[in-house]
Specification:
The protein is α+β, with helices and mostly antiparallel strands. The protein has helices spanning 4-13, 15-27, 35-49, 89-92, 107-127, 149-155, 205-222, 258-267, 293-308, 324-329, 354-369, 371-374; strands at 55-59, 65-70, 75-80, 96-98, 101-103, 133-138, 161-164, 174-178, 180-189, 193-194, 226-234, 240-241, 244-253, 277-286, 315-318, 333-335, 342-343, 351-353.
């Protein structure tokens, strides 16, 4: 039987190749908005994965989902190719290794997870037989998957288990529950006017936007959610009463029925300033990941198995949203956080711990070698 130490030795022997591969992924900048770059990375990865997962299917045109698979299988591993970092971020945060940390845009979220899975697949093929499985790579996860949701559902049909390759939580913990996430846009139309000569003829759209943001923040707080104003725009010049303004807010929540309550709130919104027009709309929505019976049984098997190999597989809840939440909604037993641990996601100090990357390759290799019994 293959032991943890056997895989660890393979990882050490191939560390240079592992880091070169991750460097290639990180230096292939792939912000969500740059569709050609994201799709090009998908095709590049197909060249790597095709010897192990020889069946390829791609759904979508501008917004694509790649599936690399082998046989029918029951397990789907889930990743995304896009990052939040604009082209040119490498100049400010180049790929480098310092004090056991691997820096670079997207190194943590989530190219480190893709790299860990690739080498786990490669090593497991050398050490034993891997059952049928699939790797799904989304190209729009960082913007909420609004255009790719149906593609993911179709490509994930027929699978029972979902393993998300997002970064692990602190201490290497798996993510077995997640908050839901809503990106909500508030648009206000007022009336433009001269701020000095005819202020009475104007309706200040920014003032009304502030009113609406304050009311929404209080409602979200009352309903036990979190609230962040991420984008706000409005106005032209200091001496002009603005006629238009908008904001985009990020709302996170635990309760399954939160979104419907929010929709009801949105339908009842009225302007504070007479004559202004207010509209609220969802930019994107990701449901909470809530444990189900199938997931609890899966986690119990995983915990027992890894404990027998000297690895304590702990779990936690994550405040972040991810595609794995949709797969749970569609009935799959979903766990996430199988990628390596790091810090600074979505920032210019983003990095992966080298030790965690190596450990995650070991863990994923063990998982793949025993997938038939762990995810029957």
């Amino acid at each position: 039987m293959v032991q943890r130490e056997d895989i660890g030795k393979l990882v050490e022997e191939n560390q240079e190749e592992i880091l070169d591969f991750l460097r290639e992924l990180v230096e292939s900048e792939s912000p969500t908005e740059e569709r050609e770059a994201v799709h090009s990375l998908g095709e590049k990865l197909w060249d790597y994965f095709s010897p192990f997962l020889p069946e390829k299917k791609v759904l979508g045109d501008e917004y694509r989902v790649f599936r690399f698979s082998k046989g029918k299988g029951k397990s789907v591993f889930l990743g995304h190719l896009d990052t939040v970092h604009p082209i040119g971020s490498l100049k400010r945060n180049p790929f480098r290794i310092e004090d056991g940390k691997i820096f670079g845009p997207g190194a943590l979220d989530m190219k480190g997870g893709i790299a860990a899975f690739y080498f786990a697949l490669k090593f497991s093929q050398n050490l034993g037989e891997v059952p049928g499985l699939a790797l799904l790579l989304n190209t729009e996860e960082e913007r909420g998957s609004a255009h790719t949701l149906d593609h993911m559902r179709r490509l994930g049909r027929g699978y029972k288990y979902c393993f998300g390759l997002e970064p692990a939580s602190s201490g290497g913990k798996l993510k077995t529950s997640r908050k839901g996430v809503i990106s909500l846009k508030i648009e206000v139309k007022g009336r433009r006017a001269h701020a000095g000569l005819a202020p009475q003829k104007g309706i200040n759209a920014i003032d009304e936007l502030i009113n609406q943001l304050h009311q929404l923040r209080e409602w979200v707080k009352l309903n036990e959610g979190s609230f962040n104003i991420g984008i706000i725009r409005g106005g032209e010049k200091p001496n002009v009463i603005p006629g238009e303004a908008f904001a985009v807010v990020d709302i996170r929540f635990d309760e399954e029925g939160f979104a419907e309550k929010l929709r009801k709130y949105m339908s009842e919104v009225t302007p504070v300033l007479k004559g202004s027009l207010v509209s609220l709309s969802f930019n994107s929505y990701v449901p909470p990941l809530q444990p189900n019976l199938a997931q609890r049984k899966l986690y119990s098997r995983l915990k027992k198995f890894f404990s027998s190999h000297g690895i304590e597989l702990e779990e936690t809840s994550s405040p972040g949203g991810a595609d794995s939440s949709w797969f749970a909604r569609w009935g799959l037993a979903s766990t996430d956080g199988w990628g390596p641990e790091g810090e600074g996601a979505h920032s210019e100090r983003e990095f992966v711990y080298l030790a965690s990357l190596k450990e995650r390759i070991v863990i994923l290799t063990l998982l793949l070698l025993h997938l038939k019994s762990l995810a029957p």
